[in-house]
Amino acid sequence: EFIYSKICPDCTFRVCNYFLNDKYLYKRKCDKTKKDMVSIYAPGSQLKIFESDIYKKMMSEDYWLTYSKDINDDITLDFKNLFLEFPKQSRDIHSWLENALYSSHTWWAKNVYLSYWVFVDCEDIYYSFSVWRWCKNVFNSYKVSWSNNIYYSSLITKSYEIIYSHNIINSNFLFFCENITNCSNCIFCCNLANKDYCIFNKQYSKEKYLVIEKKIRSEIKDYDRFLYYKDLYNDFLERESINEACIINNSEKACWDNIFDSTNLSNCFYLYWTSDSCNCMNCSTFEWIKNTNLFN
Predict the structure, then answer these.
(1) Could you tell me which residues come within 8 angstroms of residue 90 by beta carbon, excluding any fewer than 6 positions away?
(2) What b/e readout covers 152-187, taking b as 16+ CB neighbours within 10 angstroms?
């Protein structure tokens, strides 16, 4: 049977994230070399923090096998002492990183700056969070996968050239759009599927669309005109936009939000290819290897 936590969801996530810092970086000294480094641990922390490369070298040499400590009757005290004394790596980084000093929770990526949770062949990622799988040129965006040239957008999947948009799937060349699937060349649109050359959800011929698009893109170079069009778009969304209560795609028996290709989940957020799990967030793997039985 599926096991549910007796602790309320908010308290559960507070406990799970108590030691997680995936949004802030600090400058501090390496406790091994005393050199300056970038770390997810603030200066003055009572923990021992080693620069990541030094930490990895130490672990590859089986440092932990040489560590010994007397065991007390109080296992909680033993764990606390172990946690305080055993070194931590300065940033949570893994294999194949290039030019990614100011990032954490990152691996298999290149040219990453002030971004977190970036992995699997991603390149040129700036000021973004949670960019997964074969992405390139992502700026100031959140939850992007299999996409290129994404600016100031969120929840973008398998798309290209997306600007100021939200919840976009399999689409290209969108500007100020929301809840769009399988569309191309749209501006100021929402809740469309399988459409091309639309402005404020009205379809135009390709030739007329390109003329209007050129005019709009030229005008928004002026900041006052940009704000004018932004206000028009926000008013349009208030009148026309229809949002799902929660985003659950290709999933069964799944409870909460942003769940994809998963089954039997309770109180889970941003999960992909996962089953039989409860109180989880930001879990993902490949289609052919599913996460199972994750709890808290």
Answers:
(1) 28, 30, 37, 38, 39, 40, 41, 49, 50, 51, 52, 55
(2) ebbbbbebbbbbbbbbbbbbbbbbbbbbbbebbbbb
Residues in the chain: 296
Dist CA 282 CA 16 (whole Å): 12
Q: What is the pLDDT, as a whole number, of residue 10?
A: 75
* Residues paired with 193 in a beta bridge: 181
**Model-level pTM?**
0.84
Residues contacting 130, CB < 8 A, separation 6+: 116, 117, 118, 142, 143, 144, 270, 282
Question: Which long-range contacts (C-beta less than 8 Å, at least 24 apart) are formed by 226-229?
Answer: 229/176, 229/188
Nearest residue to 254 (alpha-carbon basis) of 240, 243, 264: 264
Cα separation, 228 vs 220, whole angstroms:
9
> Distance between CA 87 and CA 283 in Å, rounded?
26
Measured CA to CA, the distance from residue 152 to residue 143 in angstroms comes to 11
Distance of alpha carbon 112 from alpha carbon 228, whole angstroms? 33
Which residues of the chain carry a pLDDT beneath 70?
Answer: 1-7, 62-69, 71, 284-296
